[in-house]
Amino acid sequence: MNTLKRIDPRRPFTMTAQGLKRITLGVTGVAGVMEFNAPGAAHRGEPPKPRRTTGVPQHVLLVAVHADRGALDDHARQTLAAAALVADATTEVVLLVFGEFSGDAAALGADKLIGLPMFDRRTFAPLDELNALAACVAAYAPVHIFLPDNATGDGDLGRRYAAAANASVATHVVEIDAAHVAAYIHANTALAARTLPEVVLLAPNAVEPKLPFVGAGEQVVWRFDGAAAAARAVIRDLGIEEIDAAQLALEEADFIVSAGNGVSDVPAFERLAATLGAAIGASRVAVDDGKFTRDKQIGATGKTVEASVYIAFGISGAVQHLQGIKDCRHVIAVNLDASAPIAKRANLTVIADAQETIAALNEAAGAARTARGTGAGWFNSTAVAEGALA
């Protein structure tokens, strides 16, 4: 899924020669691997959640979101949960996803799923997306439309639709129920409330995405003539401009390698970051020791990051540091101490010396780069995470 909350350290895991590997979903047995289970974790037999409604739908709530690498981020899941919580027994929740989506729509509260994989989040096609949303609204006639109020496409799409359709809209919504919405005004000193508008743009963390029920999760084959829309488009996408990861602010970096007290050879660490095309972060201890500048510090007293991949070398994981990486999607820890706090947060923990691991990765990356005839920065953060977690 898009961003993970702090992971339960008691979930099933396996111990391998490479270190501690945690399995988020279920228990995976591996030949020749010693398996440890938290008491009752694999055999709790928790009853399945009930369907929110089995009635004949008379109304529709439409949720429009963008997927990221096949999943919905936390803000998108909160928006879907808001619609599911507002819906009554005669209302179905239709989820319209722009981009590839491979998640469980029913578990997230959707009764119907409409996927538009032709819309990649990296592609700028605002008019095409507006036309697709308008076509879906015409087909389903929803009473209300919900979108996350973010800066990555959904907020812009919601405002464009409200303007084009002359629809009532509420933005930055921080409070919602079946009767009203509310948003902060006057520099967050007061709340402004109104009845539920046609378009609701939900602020982050306004709704708990964990639901006590599931939706029907029916997948709908729905065709949108994107080619015809593209031919009429007046906006031309110039693509993504690649820049050096070192120039990115840590808050914007998608791939971060971070050094702690266990990293002694800083030049080797920086070479690895350049090879991987990753931004550089550091723990407070490493910054206090003068190895890195203060703007590289990650944690409660530094930067809070939301990277897809975060690799921590030689970082024990003080609570302040863990607070800074709580929204990272995949965390990989390299540490000699299997009981270090970072291991409880990490998706994958490699029990090894950080410096030796950095040297080995530099050597392996150099050999792979030579074999492929490519330069630095050819690694993909998602590929790195998926390969490591496989």
UniProtKB/TrEMBL annotation:
According to UniProt, the name of this protein is: Protein FixB
Gene Ontology molecular functions: electron transfer activity; flavin adenine dinucleotide binding
Pfam families referenced in this protein's UniProt entry, alphabetically: ETF (PF01012), ETF_alpha (PF00766)
Which keywords label this protein? Answer: Electron transport, Transport
Q: Tell me the organism.
A: Paraburkholderia ultramafica
Residue limits of the Electron transfer flavoprotein alpha subunit C-terminal domain?
Answer: 250-326
Q: Which GO terms describe its biological process?
A: fatty acid beta-oxidation using acyl-CoA dehydrogenase
Using the record's annotation, list all stretches that form the Electron transfer flavoprotein alpha/beta-subunit N-terminal domain.
60-212
